Amino acid sequence: MLDIQLTRPLAPRYRPSFTLIELLVVVAIIGIMSSMVLYTLAGAQTDAKVSLTRSTIEKLNAVILEEWEGFRYRAARIDIDPDMLRPQLADGQPLLRPREGARLRMFVLRDLMRMELPDRMSDLVYSPAYYSATLSNGATYSVVNRIAPGKYNSLRQRIGIAPLIGGGYTDVVKAIYRLPVSGPQTPPPEFNVEFQGAEMLYQIVASSTHGGGSALEAFRPTEIGDVDGDGLPEFLDAWGVPIRWLRWPAGYASPLNDTTSPDAMDPLRSDLRWRDGDYTQKPWQLVPLIISAGPDGVFDVSFDIQDSSGAGIAYATNLDPYVGSYDTDGSWLGMGLGANIDEDSSGNFSAADDNITNYSLLLE
């Protein structure tokens, strides 16, 4: 008898799988997590570049402020006829009163600062100035700066301009404002006006000493470049944009630009504008501004004084840095050099938060 055993057929095997919806959910989650990681990495990279740029600006600030502070106690050579200083009047006063003498010293120091700390090419193209004072008898007494300072000629040679030998021929009718007011009004051929402030900053540092050696020794090769290829280097921020500077940033709002304290070159407030009731913007103390465009690569301050038609005067140095200026479209910017031009969608000027400056370092 046959023993036949019947077995059940094997149950079909099903391979595990995902539905389309499940796959889309997983892909979406992975995408979100990747975005978070990339955003974090991008933020870390930006923070690293900000730190590198701050380090570069800190080194520049140390050199520039050392040069700037030197003018506070600088001896001003003024060739004055001794008779102007002797008592010659009925009241026993000299023809050149002490306050007028202080004003002459202010003129000389401002002119020296313009020549030795240039923030644009024309500061070096202009020759030394002559200065005028009013004597006690009402006459005008002029003093000519006949000697160009050595650093001025050294800087001229660095950028390819012949040294200046001889007297000063620059009119200084408005020396009380921004020196000087006459001379060449156009830059040399093929000169790039846009980067002139950055190039002048490099030349100042390159010709300065700091810490017992050349000031350039503190900078890495990656901090120096020549963006426009004109043979005049610039200091670069971490994004490869030239770092600019302004010697007299009157329009830059900061506690460092103290509107109640006089210019360091004029401690006695001999500048006539202190006594001029019609002049509301007094010649207060100005600290040099060193500025990087920051992550967005856009400078949010004005480097050029504008005239009332909105036309830029990027090369001339003949306007008062304390006077308000206009944007290129003719809109009023308020104060002059360094004025905020970062305009939001509502037409209001907002803080230039992404620019990196030496001011933020000094205020920390």
TrEMBL record:
Keyword Cytoplasm: no
Keyword check for Nuclease: no
InterPro entries for this protein: N_methyl_site, Pilin-like
Keywords: Membrane, Transmembrane, Transmembrane helix
Transmembrane feature ranges: 20-42
Name the record gives this protein: Type II secretion system protein G
